[in-house]
UniProtKB/TrEMBL annotation:
Protein name: Glyoxalase-like domain-containing protein
Gene3D superfamilies: 2,3-Dihydroxybiphenyl 1,2-Dioxygenase, domain 1
Coiled coil (residue ranges): none
Lineage, top ranks: Bacteria, Pseudomonadati, Bacteroidota, Flavobacteriia, Flavobacteriales
Residue ranges of every copy of the Glyoxalase-like domain listed in the record: 12-110
Species the sequence originates in: Winogradskyella haliclonae
Record-linked Pfam families: Glyoxalase_2
InterPro entries associated with the record: Glyas_Bleomycin-R_OHBP_Dase (IPR029068), Glyoxalase-like_dom (IPR025870)
Top-rank lineage group of the source organism: Bacteria
Length: 125
């Protein structure tokens, strides 16, 4: 089994499309104003956004995007106007990550874990 597609809700798919293009995702399906699909520049995963009239209350979706060089990625995105809610954090689970929110309050974590993402020292066999 391979998780290859995630769909998130948005009140304004046009604005969400611009935001995710700024993050570097590649638009592959354009059914604006109700739906779009992106592919990530690395790997085979895709992300879709669909129009909703209301968003759910409370904690929403968290999206994790792994990058090879987190410092350079953050620098580049800041130059494009992206605002982060944290500085780069060195987590106890051996990942470096930075947090931000999209326009619909979905949490985004940009991180680098390398080998530790799937093979941390405490992995069970």
């Amino acid at each position: 089994m391979n998780l290859n597609q995630v769909t998130i809700p948005s009140l304004n798919v046009e604005k969400a499309t611009a935001f995710y293009k700024t993050l570097g995702l590649i638009l592959i399906v354009d059914a604006l104003p109700r739906y779009v699909r992106f592919e990530c520049p690395n790997g085979d995963s895709t992300l879709s956004i669909h129009k909703v009239d209301t968003l759910q209350n409370g904690d929403g979706i968290s999206l994790y995007f792994e990058v090879e060089n987190i410092e350079e990625t953050v620098k580049t995105l800041k130059q494009k106007g992206i605002t982060f809610t944290t500085n780069i954090l060195e987590q106890t689970w051996l990942w470096n990550e930075v947090h931000l929110y999209d326009l619909d309050n979905n949490k985004i974590i940009i991180f680098h874990a390398g080998e530790n993402r799937k093979n941390p020292p405490w992995r069970i066999n």
